[in-house]
């Protein structure tokens, strides 16, 4: 039932620096809607509106009408339902966010083509009041414009292979030939900033001959949720660093706890809208949309994927997207299932792969058998694995690690090892204190896991061009 409010609803518009913002005055204790530009580029921008219920009882629905000047239009929205009439764009709730509890809020986002800022705002049918004044409020935009692409360096993994594409069950290069990418994952980028410097990336690219650099952006645990703009910028910078060295960058939306990806759906849509718009021109970006779903059904993961993938595709239609699987990306095995549930009900999108993770000291023959079986039907990508136990710590299991890596090589399954960091745990490739020291090349800085991984990764690649 639609509850008519008697309070005056209004919106605050705060836009990027050098723009003009319309400031709508708010009565005290009203439901409000706040608009902000969260990213902008030469031909458009991304907007976000937060509808807040500042009253003492729940509201059961909401509706926001934005008017844009001629030549500017909303081309995509998420976490809301978009309709339009002329220059007016109407946003109503998505299936899950119509009800807003007392003192709670919901945020939806949209992409605008054209640079005109809103000229009008109506919330639940009432005209926003206020004046338009120039402002120089600080921008929260993670980047001013979509990044242009750095030409791939000749002879590097990106220089040779170019834009990747899923072909059958394989990852293929620009020549349509199957390839395997071998590389390293960061630890949580919120924890080890000094491990991802220019010197570190140089060592990965030229000493390790790494094809791939996974950028692990935790969402919780002091990650993205604490500073979306800051983490988005950090990820984009690392994408550039990888590109400059001819390495692929795997953008990992590192959900872990809670294991239900739906908990982070809105954040995922916002984050992937931004990174895909900004990096669309690049050939080196692969999107990993959910690190390790756990405690949820495959149907839930698939539903999440089918909401996030269109957000990416709208900006970056040809990029490969990797989808997490049930049971901490074990293809379901760690929760008593297997890959048959995916084969029977695959994600309804093309150019996608499925994640498999393992920790060699914990996951052995039965997991290897399932990977071999699944690889016959599904494109798999080992976006994370460790040479130790699933805790990320303990001794390297050399025999199991080599059995795994031999299997992945044979099946041409790409992989990233956890972690290129100096965390004091067995899975870290670098000895504690290495990152502060600032030198990363050679074997002197490596742990037992690092020595094993560098020796496996730096061997010659097989990247066919004909
Ligand atoms: C671990 C880190 C550890 C950190 C912990 C919690 O190694 O330092 O305290 O996360 O954030 C995964 C996860 C990955 C884990 C890793 C090892 O994707 O985040 O990292 N692991 O436990 N899945 C299986 C193992």
UniProtKB/TrEMBL annotation:
For the protein in the UniProt heading, the enzyme class is hydrolase
Q: Where is the signal peptide?
A: 1-24
Read off the PANTHER family from this record. ENDO-BETA-1,4-GLUCANASE A, GLYCOSIDE HYDROLASE FAMILY 5 DOMAIN-CONTAINING PROTEIN
Show the SUPFAM superfamilies listed in the entry: (Trans)glycosidases, Carbohydrate-binding domain
Q: Where is the composition biased (Low complexity)?
A: 130-152
- Species per Swiss-Prot/TrEMBL record: Actinoplanes flavus
Catalytic activity annotated for this protein? Endohydrolysis of (1->4)-beta-D-glucosidic linkages in cellulose, lichenin and cereal beta-D-glucans
Matching InterPro entries, A to Z? Answer: CBD2 (IPR001919), CBM2/CBM3_carb-bd_dom_sf (IPR008965), CBM2_carb-bd_dom_sf (IPR012291), GH (IPR017853), Glyco_hydro_5 (IPR001547), Glyco_hydro_5_CS (IPR018087)
Q: Which residues cross the membrane?
A: none
Q: Which residues form the CBM2 domain?
A: 24-131
Instruction: Spell out the residue ranges making up region: Disordered.
Output: 130-157
Which UniProt keyword terms apply here?
Carbohydrate metabolism, Cellulose degradation, Glycosidase, Hydrolase, Polysaccharide degradation, Signal
Task: Return the EC number.
Answer: 3.2.1.4
* Name of the protein described by the UniProt record: Endoglucanase
Its domain of life reads Bacteria
Q: What protein family does this chain belong to?
A: Belongs to the glycosyl hydrolase 5 (cellulase A) family.
Keyword Secreted applies = no
């Amino acid at each position: 039932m639609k509850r008519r409010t008697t309070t005056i609803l209004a919106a605050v518009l705060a836009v990027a620096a050098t723009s003009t913002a319309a400031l709508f005055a708010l009565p005290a204790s009203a439901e409000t809607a706040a608009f902000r530009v969260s990213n902008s580029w030469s031909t458009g921008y991304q907007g976000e509106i937060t509808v807040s219920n500042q009253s003492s009882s729940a509201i059961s629905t909401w509706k926001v009408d934005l008017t844009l000047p001629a030549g500017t239009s909303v081309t995509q929205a998420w976490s809301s339902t978009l309709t339009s009439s002329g220059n007016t764009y109407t946003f109503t709730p998505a299936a899950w966010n119509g009800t807003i509890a007392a003192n709670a809020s919901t945020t939806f986002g949209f992409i605008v083509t054209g640079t005109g800022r809103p000229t009008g705002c109506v919330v639940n049918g009432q005209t926003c009041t206020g004046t338009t004044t120039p402002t120089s409020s600080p921008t929260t935009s993670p980047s001013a414009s979509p990044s242009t692409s750095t030409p791939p360096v000749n002879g590097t993994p990106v220089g040779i292979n170019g834009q990747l594409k899923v072909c059958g069950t394989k990852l293929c290069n620009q020549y349509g030939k199957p390839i395997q990418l071998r590389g390293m994952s960061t630890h949580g980028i919120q924890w080890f900033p000094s491990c991802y410097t220019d010197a570190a990336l140089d060592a990965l690219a030229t000493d390790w001959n790494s094809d791939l650099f996974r950028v692990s952006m935790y969402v919780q645990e002091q990650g993205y949720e604490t500073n979306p703009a800051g983490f988005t910028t950090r990820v984009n910078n690392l994408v550039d660093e990888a590109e400059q060295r001819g390495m692929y960058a795997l953008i990992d939306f590192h959900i872990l706890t809670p294991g239900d990806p739906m908990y982070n759906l809105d954040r995922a849509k916002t984050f992937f809208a931004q990174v895909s718009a900004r990096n669309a021109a690049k050939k080196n970006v692969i999107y990993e949309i959910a690190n390790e779903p756990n405690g949820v059904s495959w149907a839930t993961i698939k539903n999440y994927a089918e909401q996030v993938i269109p957000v990416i595709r709208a900006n970056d239609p040809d990029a490969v997207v990797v989808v997490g699987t049930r049971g901490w990306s074990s293809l379901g095995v760690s929760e008593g299932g297997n890959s048959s549930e995916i084969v029977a009900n695959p994600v309804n999108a093309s150019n996608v792969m499925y994640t498999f993770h393992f920790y060699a000291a914990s996951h052995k023959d039965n997991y290897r058998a399932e990977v071999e079986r699944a690889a016959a039907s599904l494109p798999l990508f080992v976006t994370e694995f460790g040479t130790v136990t699933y805790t990320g710590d303990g001794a390297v299991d050399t025999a199991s690690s080599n059995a795994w890596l031999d299997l992945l090589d044979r099946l041409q399954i790409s992989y990233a090892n956890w972690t290129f960091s100096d965390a004091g745990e067995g899975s870290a490739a670098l000895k504690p204190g290495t990152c502060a020291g600032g030198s990363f090349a050679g074997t002197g800085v490596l742990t037992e896991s690092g020595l094993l991984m560098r020796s496996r990764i730096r061997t010659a690649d097989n990247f066919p061009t004909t």
